[in-house]
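Quarterly update, task 2.4: adenosine monophosphate-bound model.
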Amino acid sequence: MTAAFAFDNSYARELEGFYVPWKPAAVAAPRLLFLNRALAEELGLDPDSLAGARGADLFAGNALPEGAQPIAQAYAGHQFGGFSPQLGDGRALLLGEVIDRRGLRRDVAFKGSGRTPFARNGDGKAAVGPMLREVLVGEAMHALGIPTTRALAVAATGEPVHRERTLPGAVLTRIAASHLRVGTFEYFAARGEHERVRKLAGYALARHDPGLAGDPVPALALLRAVAARQAALVVRWMNAGFIHGVMNTDNMAISGETIDYGPCAFMEAFDPAAVFSSIDHHGRYAWANQPPIAQWNLARLAEALLPAIDPDPDRAAALAMEVLDDFPARYHRHLLAGRREKLGIGAGDDAADEALAAGWLDLLHRQRVDFTLGWRRLADAAAGDEAPLRALFAEREAPSAWLDRWRERCAEDGRDGPARAQAMRGASPFVIPRNHRVEEALAAASDAGDLAPFERLLDALRRPFDEAPELAPYGEPAPPAVTACYQTFCGT
Ligand code: AMP
Ligand code: MG
């Protein structure tokens, strides 16, 4: 392990014209609030060398690490359905890429490091609370096994940020498989720069799907690969009760990682229409809409790629449509596999198992049962104890008929109760980032400079499948009145 980032900056080197070289703004009083030691080690870095004053200067943007080539990446995006031809890194910078210990190329990027030429009316800054939210939710997703960008560090700037209120400022250092977005392709396609779209597709394929690099139609291979990753990713969100909140095409990563934890939340009482974002007035990005929105976003990617797929527009469209039309079936295959794990059943009759899962969700919905605890207590029922499950229902007899069906289905499956329960507990977490716990931790950090609640919550989120007694406070839903009023804001 070393103190130096071993940068190898392929984006800056190979994609000139796709970005603007830019420098982070110097800040007044850097202070390190969070360092992800395990992630630093993954990147081959010595965490001790990143702590203290060096880490504060480095992660606030005051002292660039050797080999960094900071650039603001260009991208466009469909936001709530409408096209913005120029978004780009308004307050973010890609410092460069490092090859991690497993040989994977990872982006190292700042968020909140000052205005760039893409800043439009923004101030280029970020506040402590939202950046620590990225830490909490990203680490929770990672611990749940859901592909995600992750926070390496958060440094306070010692400068104020003006939002609805004046807040303390911070810079996040984010690690990502890449920051290529659907919107990156849209940016060049919208300008008619099809040669650049083709080049970007080649770059993306070499980076994320090296096995497909020799494909005769690289742009089509890329579309297929991205569709496969998004189908798998959105299923993971759905089965965890996660609502991204702002699935604009600039927030959909080509890598298949979850990116941009702004107005996101985990749902509590199960409701397919659940949405928490204060700006999502029509529920475009509600829980149940996430699969069709992913497909809609993929259609925007396909459009951008069309000229690179085939010079004959009809043929290009037909090839792209084949991929898009296959998305629902692909998604449903993943979904059923995930639901079977959570139900504790193996392969069987697809239609019957889908109906069994649908019956369960319908029951949770009608009885407003907490999504996470509902699944978790079903595992207890598999182990022979139904009381904790029934206690979640307003009417304790409500799940009886469904439980009979489920038990019959389980009987077809070889495992005994304890083995089934154990497997189910590995598929349905106990600890998720409960909205009230996240808010409590962020408020203490942002308003009082007290990081203790944040650190305790982070520790709990790193063991989501554990149910040790000390984790009990993190497994409880918020009081319903709190959830009813809960909104997350885009003013990040
Ligand atoms: P987001 O909603 O965070 O995905 O960002 C959408 C777009 O707005 C991106 O181009 C961001 O770079 C830009 N943006 C968001 N907040 C700011 C800010 N405070 N200053 C400059 N640009 C911003
Ligand atoms: Mg974004």
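Highlight for this quarter: Residues 313-343 form the longest helix (31 residues).
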